Amino acid sequence: xxxxxxxxxxxxxxxxxxxxxxxxxxxxxxxxxxxxxxxxxxxxxxxxxxxxxxxxxxxxxxxxxxxxxxxxxxxxxxxxxxxxxxxxxxxxxxxxxxxxxxxxxxxxxxxxxxxxxxxxxxxxxxxxxxxxxxxxxxxxxxxxxxxxxxxxxxxxxxxxxxxxxxxxxxxxxxxxxxxxxxxxxxxxxxxxxxxxxxxxxxxxxxxxxxxxxxxxxxxxxxxxxxxxxxxxxxxxxxxxxxxxxxxxxxxxxxxxxxxxxxxxxxxxxxxxxxxxxxxxxxxxxxxxxxxxxxxxxxxxxxxxxxxxxxxxxxxxxxx
Length: 319
Fold this sequence. Notes:
319 residues; alpha/beta; Rossmann fold; 9 helices; 29% helix
């Protein structure tokens, strides 16, 4: 039997770290290199409520289901993992069919007319809600336990002999993949959140909406995350005070306790979007094996573990 090859994972957001963990658990010697610390990645700016929203890639359903299984297990220890199982309401302004995935979740039921307010229809369910700063710290600790080192650096080409050197490369660079691979289908989608003190809200609210101004309230213990925004083609990570004020006002119409609360933090991230998630093996003309895992758009957390399992399977097939 040939020896297990070593792997270099590029990127330390949620996709990079979950991929690194699965690879190490599969027997690979793994190293991670990242331009940004995990706490500075786009992943840290995510909401992040599990749910395969606005997703067209047919692989998202099985990836989401596998991730749900992992997150449900992690939700047993929320203080350690940052993952909680939370009941909440998803509602649509224009009558919308209930997503099939929602009907299979714990606590599912159709909302009553009295519960909907200005919304047309909606449904309740229980799903994992992830406190991303805490969750990324948990993943980082998992890497440490597996003796996976994270180094800071920029990889400009998978062909760079300093990085390839016979290793399998796993590309989890998010928007960075545009330069790394020349992928012209990848484009930025800017999102902004507002973090305020939690006035006692313990259920989430998520608007089932494809507009650029989705409204949601996500309780994370003493903090409440308010959203959101979808700005296609914008990569600037600077906070926009006007967008932040509009988010808080929309959320206050859902729950008046939000109105006037002091803003603790603005979170801005750039979703790496493309027509379909790129998760595939590529052998470069120079003979370097690259497994791509990027282009998750707004479902990076939702599909993270499912994608990581497939990354490890591809690497095993290559080795």
